[in-house]
């Protein structure tokens, strides 16, 4: 389980040399992001200044992390790569497949029996290929990575969009699809378009009710869910250094919600404290020797406008607590405006549930501060109005907060302590009554609040806020409650005002744990057998996708024109479907079932052009596939927002969809489509979206000349025989066109040609 200090020292040794060289080549001071990027170039040698947002660059990440729900597909692909062991340190974390219902002990036992086959598979593949395995109950991937593996100045990738959490410890940590992870695990480079850079200057100091979460809630409000696409967000300023390391993690974590490639902070005392508290003084000693390389140059932070593509300034001393939502994480409302905003929009004021936890807000500090609010309520004799649940981020956190009496405090309010796992955050929540689909409000400290995400009920209005605000709001039971100005009634009928939260950043007596839940791989795994039952409904070995036949795609049918927001939750829903994440055929039955059909504004009801009848999207896709007819999907802006799950790309590929044509893509999803041998295209002229009709048949006119930088022409033949030729842009470079030609990137690796 131990981190690899020798590897980290090596990274630091090359860092100094490469950064100095890069500074000369670029000819100006460097941001932290550039320093980490340049020192992780695959060819090891900075030779020229890259054009941000344009140049594809090959990188050599230091680590890979996968979580159970995405690791299944990633490892099924890795098994085809023909390697004996992983080429870089890799871990697998079991956290997504555990449902929250009764409480940790019962829920974990049920998950261990229901998903035994999958956990056994992940454990044996990990054992075979030299991968560290974190058992169910050990915690949520991103907290465990922060506690054990993240280090300032490092670069890692992970098969989860919130891998970015490790930016809190000064890393560049980036979420990717499984196929990208397979490249790195196989010893190949990892490709990324050189990111744009957004600088966020934090002045002042958090105080009162304001928490790190409010910084990212505010940034999300400013930048929106696509404002960070293709960019790294680099935070700096006195406000940044004044904040805890896990608080920084929260900010970076939720940077996924603005589409940012990742976010990061410069190395500082908060990171030293955190590393020391998590038994990694060795890293502090090594990092201190290169400290100047682990943060942006002074000139950069003094004149950020000269070095970043965009600069945002936030004064933490003036920042108000925010409550973002419902249905999208970028709809920000300062707490003082919530009463009016909720009334204007008809949001239910009564709060049914408050949930604290998830990978972004489950640190010791988060739990301690939220508990300080609960403690006050109990002391004042206030009866909480809403139900309350918590998910600690890791077993180490759970054990420590139990030792320190924090869990006991929560329990005084009847709080349910769920497993150290994702739980309600990913729809793994057996919420009583959700099936009635009643309009209701919940508040949570998670980061995503898309429709149906937590409990499957499209009428649940989920609001995202800090853990301490979740506590206050859940106790009041009222979405319009402002703890700064409002009072609560206690059991004697007295009006009580809650004091602002407080809590230790790190446990005074240090972290403790009995069994962290780690399993080291076999020293030589070559004899380990990995069994996948051919009759399993959970796991299915992958068959390679067909190579391109070299011809234009002709006679394709429009499968769906998706209307509005179409996140990966809409394309490949989680919750109950998580159980099929290792079985491509079965999980394909959820393809696009959440997407709204632009022609009837209904979900999962599209026209089958062969029969003229309306049917579920997967059924129609299967009908076209059975008839040998290709299909295409059309979508709006930021298509594929959210998760890194490559199922959202593999399912359409498996069901015969050849191209996805949208106004714009979220980064990870676009790459996932390319990797799986799909055409990921954008309208050259966005207004052409409106020209596409329900009964269209599509012919590609010049796919045979598929070339980097050249748009493709698609002919849409309408039911009345009239036609529109639509120009579609793409961002494929030569090697990515190679993936398309081969049928998938994996086909190239398997053939030894990558
Ligand atoms: C999420 O928060 O949406 C998830 C579930 O963690 C996903 C990964 C998945 O779909 O398995 C993510 O963020 O990438
Ligand atoms: Fe798990 Fe939620 Fe974090 Fe995704 S966002 S990794 S589902 S806790």
Task: Explain briefly what this protein structure is.
With 754 residues, the protein is of the alpha/beta class. 31% of the residues lie in helices and 18% in strands. The chain has a 7-stranded mixed barrel with strand order 22-26-27-28-31-30-29. A 6-stranded mixed beta sheet has the order 6-5-2-3-4-21, with helices on one face. Strands 16-15-14-17-18 form a 5-stranded parallel beta sheet, with helices on one face.
Distance between the termini: 31 Å
- Enumerate the spans where pLDDT stays under 50 for 5 or more consecutive residues: none
The proportion of residues forming helix, as a percent range, comes to 25-40%
Mean pLDDT: 97
**Percent of sequence in beta strands:** 15-25%
Say how many strands there are. Answer: 31
Number of helices: 25
Describe the biggest sheet? 7 strands, mixed, barrel
What is the radius of gyration? 25 Å
**What strand order characterises the main sheet?**
22-26-27-28-31-30-29
Instruction: Give the overall shape, derived from the CA principal axes.
Output: globular
* Content-based structural category: alpha/beta
Bound molecules: alpha-methylisocitric acid, iron/sulfur cluster
